[in-house]
Amino acid sequence: MISIEFKDGQGLGNQLWLYASAKSISEKIGLDLEIKNFNKFKALDFLKLDINISPNSVSRDSKEDSKFYEKLYYDSELKYIISDFDENVLNIKKNTLLEGIFQSEQYFFGDFEKLKRYIKVDENLINNYPIKKNVCILNIRGGEYKRHHDFILPKIYWLNAIENFKKKYKINHFKIVTDDYLYAKALFPKFEIISDDIAKCFITIYNCSNIVVSNSSFSYFPCRIGKTKKNIIAPMYWARPYKNKGRWISPGNIYKDWQYQDISSKLISYDECKKIAIKTSEYYKNNFYIFINKREIPSKGFLNILPKKFKIILKNKLKYIFPKIIG
């Protein structure tokens, strides 16, 4: 048996990547998968996961379990933690806990169809959130992303993508799915906004035919398992779309059948972007040290010196005054 753990602070996209990759790995090496703290799964009310062990069962004592840490790199120039496919995961033994990001499609070993078996949407909810084929979804990520100016996608990215959908697909109707209503409203006050309901957001993306995604893990699985074939535009270079020194950040975050939009609004094919990701992967393997603990990277910023409760109160007040800046 191998295991993973759902933790406080994980987003739904992070949880689904961890689960789906671990499930695929477990089948590849012939071991069962256990999910610890399954009650922390953020989609208990609308997603069903293919697990062999009841989520209500008591987790076995894993104090003696070994841990497998997915290899990570820290790019000090771009100030980002880099993840990629870690082939060493196929050498793990039973009673191992997987720790890492696990957001590379290589963990699915060429089989995407099994994801529809791994993750199923409540059929009773699918028809509740229909999206017409002539509508494009803008999956805008705000929140804590606004604290990272090199990470968050500027308005020009969305404007260019809108123009690309108008020209290439003759789409003229746009709606927003977001984790940050105030931010999205400040960017596009006239668009309909779907927010504050994780099931509705997920299923809307699941049902749509056209989507512009952010550099977030949330949209991947509703795009991949949805019954409707999708036209997808994503940011080129992923986590550092505008300041990247020609590196794909991270090499694991490159997804088949997606189109990638560069800084000039040009659409680049997956195959061309994959070449950049592979080159970037080799660059990190040859030039950077590997670490296994995010705590090795010092956090910065004045808010980090404040008590946690005070930070929450302060941010909740400031986000109404500065919706484009405070998450």
Topology (elements, then pairings):
Elements: E1 2-5, H1 12-29, E2 33-36, E3 47-49, E4 66-69, E5 72-75, E6 80-83, E7 96-99, H2 115-118, E8 119-121, H3 123-126, E9 135-140, H4 155-169, E10 173-178, H5 181-187, E11 192-194, H6 198-207, E12 210-212, H7 220-225, E13 231-235, E14 259-261, E15 267-268, H8 270-287, E16 290-291, H9 308-321
Parallel strand pairs: 1-2, 1-7, 4-7, 9-10, 9-12, 10-11, 12-13, 13-14
Antiparallel strand pairs: 3-8, 5-6, 5-16, 14-15
Rg, alpha carbons = 20 Å
How would you characterize the largest beta sheet?
7 strands, mixed
Spatial ordering of strands, largest sheet: 11-10-9-12-13-14-15
Shape: globular
In total, how many beta strands?
A: 16
Mean pLDDT comes to 89
Write up what this structure looks like:
Helices cover 29% and strands 18% of the residues. It contains nine helices and 16 strands. It has helices spanning 12-29, 115-118, 123-126, 155-169, 181-187, 198-207, 220-225, 270-287, 308-321, and strands at residues 2-5, 33-36, 47-49, 66-69, 72-75, 80-83, 96-99, 119-121, 135-140, 173-178, 192-194, 210-212, 231-235, 259-261, 267-268, 290-291. Helix 5 links the parallel strand 10 and strand 11. The chain is globular. The two termini are 39 Å apart. Residues 295-306 have low confidence and may be disordered.
Summed up:
It is globular, with a radius of gyration of 20 Å. It has helices at 12-29, 115-118, 123-126, 155-169, 181-187, 198-207, 220-225, 270-287, 308-321, and strands spanning 2-5, 33-36, 47-49, 66-69, 72-75, 80-83, 96-99, 119-121, 135-140, 173-178, 192-194, 210-212, 231-235, 259-261, 267-268, 290-291. It is built from 9 helices and 16 strands.
